[in-house]
Each structure stands twice: as C-alpha cells, then as structure tokens.
Amino acid sequence: MRWENLTEGSAGPAALFGADAVVTRTIDTPEFRGITFHEVRARSIVNRVPGASRMPFEWTVNPYRGCSHACVYCFARKTHSYLDLDTGLGFDSQIVVKTNAPDLLRRELGSPRWTGAHIAMGTNVDCYQRAEGRYRLMPGIIEALRDRANPFSILTKGTLILRDLPLLREAAEVTEVGISVSVGFTDTGLWRTVEPGTPSPAARLGAVRALTDAGIECGVLMAPVIPFLGDSPEQLRATVRAVAEAGATSVTPLVLHLRPGAREWFTAWLGAHHPHLVPRYQRMYAGGSYAPTWYQRRITRQVHELAAEFGIGPARRGEARKIVAPESPDGSAPAGATQLSLL
Questions:
Q1: What distances in angstroms separate CA 322 from CA 100, 140, 173, one per listed residue?
Q2: In DSSP terms, which residues pair with 119 in a beta bridge?
Q3: Torsion angle of the four alpha carbons 245, 247, 248, 251, in this order, in degrees rounded to the nearest 10
C-alpha cells in the first residue's frame, strides 16, 4: 500500500497523513466481517472541490475513504487507486478512517483564514456507512459545525443519521442545515444487486419521514436513475410516489454517470447480471462518463411532472447564516467582515 508516499517526509504527493499514523484493524463481528479498517490521523479535513467539478459547492469534509455500502456504480471508486488499493472489492472492504476528523475540523473552522463557507458531506463516500457505527465521528463533526454556526449539508443512504437527530436540530437553530437522502428507485430486486450494503429504499424513506416529523426538512436525491433497469415510467412513478408519501420537501433526479474506476466495475457487474444490456450501455456512454443530454432531460422532465402531480414542491432557497460577526468596540463591524449566505 502506498501510505509511505502520502505521509510526512515523503518525496511523493503532498502528505495526507502524519508519519507513522496508520493502524490497520480487522474486526471479527458479523456486521464488519470481511472489512479492514485503516485508522489514520489526517493532516487536513476541509477539502476544496476542484474548480472543474460540476458540484454546486466548494468545500467538503470526508471522514472516510472507501465505503461498505458497496454500490456498484459509486463514482468515488477511483479515489482508492490513489492509495494503491483496489477500486472494486477493495473499495467496498478496505475503509480508511480519519480518526482525528472532529478535532481537526474544530481547529480548521477556528482558523482566521476560514470564512464560514458552506461545507458538504457525503458527497464522496457516505459518512453514515457502517463504519460510523463503530467510530462515531459524525457527532463531533456536527458539534464543531454547530458551535461555529457554520452552514452544512449531508447526503446519505444511511439510516444511522437518525442517531444524530438531536444534534442536527441544535445545529439547525443557529445555521442553515441541508439534509438529503439518496433513493434512486424502490425496486427491491435492483437494490439487492446494485446497493448490497445499504439500508433498503423503504428504510431510507422511513428516515426521511422521521427527519421531517422532527422538524428537519429533508429532500431526496433520486440517484442514480439507472438506464434500462430503473427508468421505466412505472418505476419512476412508484419512486416519486414513495418519496412524496415520506414527506420529502423536494426530489432531484440524477442519471447514472460512469467515471473511470466506477465504469469498469459497473460494466463487469452488468456483464454478469444483464449481459444483453452491455451493447446498449456502450452506445449510451460512448461519449464519456455521462448519459446523453437528451436522455437526462427526458428523465428530469418526467420526474418533475410526477413531483408536481404528487405535490412535492421545489427546495427552498437557503437563508443567511444566523450567526453575526462580533462588533468592534466602536460598534462597527470588523474590517472585511461579511454576512455569509448559503445561496
């Protein structure tokens, strides 16, 4: 493994971990059988999103690398290759845990250079995957964000988020908190094969209901919509209906995209389970990682029409942060101070 190239004093890329900071553990319990944890002490935790990214946010926090949800289409698989780890089964079972993430985040949020920008979580790998049940990093992370009134959002397939509901409510009292649950389809047969390590779609929608009943607005990212397997009018209707019944405030469709790393793993899965679809996928994704624009627009239009039919409104614009900069002795705001907003 390439830890030595990513630690202090290495001649390789910028150090990600402190020297001699990696501890590998194998936990022999049913819920973690077959999973290896690599505990590391990260040197930074707030990451800037590359400028070329399509993501609508600039900063992320990722306490884990690799994901036991084992979604065959996961676009983050390529990141495991940076550590010379396998992007297939290795991504599903070799989990890097940044054990110092809460303390490191608190320190970085307190830096004079930090301006209080929105921080997105769960956008690379799921921060509420099974490892979180053991390492409990998210409570400390949410507390740090709450204490600085720093706006944040969480995207997850994990029902474990309900454990932190009291902290989320406290944070929502002082800053903008956005929660989205990912449910691309409600077909249980499809779920068992493409998302084998995740809670069921029904369980995730149950989490949406619990969050909304507790006063935390929760949207659904309907992702991925999988061509030829989860995109029929009947499947789209069933999913949007279930999302509406769960009380979601919004539904946003996202068609499957196949970046390098994920593309190879998904294609192998497709060849094993649906070999007749391989030529169709080759044609659909011949232009790159994304499905053709016409197809994406068609799915978006269908989902939006169904959302209107079932009474799901659009997501509301984010409000300004509820924390204000301290005043100077003369009553004026400090030089350069600004009131930040999410949107």
A1: 28, 21, 8
A2: 59, 152
A3: 30
Q: Please, are residues 159 and 207 in contact by the beta-carbon 8 Å criterion?
A: yes
Beta partners for residue 40, in sequence order: 98
Q: What is the DSSP string of 244-306?
A: HHTT-S-EEEEE----TTHHHHHHHHHHHH-GGGHHHHHHHTTTSSS--HHHHHHHHHHHHHH
**pLDDT digits 0-9 by tens, 123-177:** 999 999 999 999 999 999 999 999 999 999 999 999 999 999 999 999 999 999 9
Q: How far apart are CA 98 and CA 104, in angstroms?
A: 10
Contacts of 208 (CB under 8 A, 6+ apart): 181, 183, 218, 220, 243, 246, 247, 248
Calculate the CA 280 to chain-centre distance: 29
Burial degree of 213 (CB within 10 A; 0-12, 13-18, 19+): exposed
Q: Are residues 320 and 343 in contact, defined by beta-carbon separation less than 8 angstroms?
A: no
- Amino acid of residue 329: P
Rounded Cα gap, residues 327 and 325, in angstroms: 6
Cα-Cα end-to-end distance for the chain: 41
For the ranges 28-42, 185-199, 290-304, the lowest mean pLDDT is seen at 28-42
DSSP 252: E
Radius of gyration of the chain (CA): 21
Residue 195: both structure tokens together: 């998302």
Name the residue type at position 250. S
- Whether residue 85 contacts residue 150, with contact meaning beta carbons closer than 8 Å, is answered with no
For residue 17, give both structure tokens.
Answer: 């971990």
CA–CA separation, 167 and 139 (whole Å): 7
Number of Cβ within 10 Å of residue 323's Cβ equals 15
- Chain centroid to CA 343: how far? 20
- DSSP letter for 249, please: S
Q: Does residue 334 carry a pLDDT above 70?
A: no
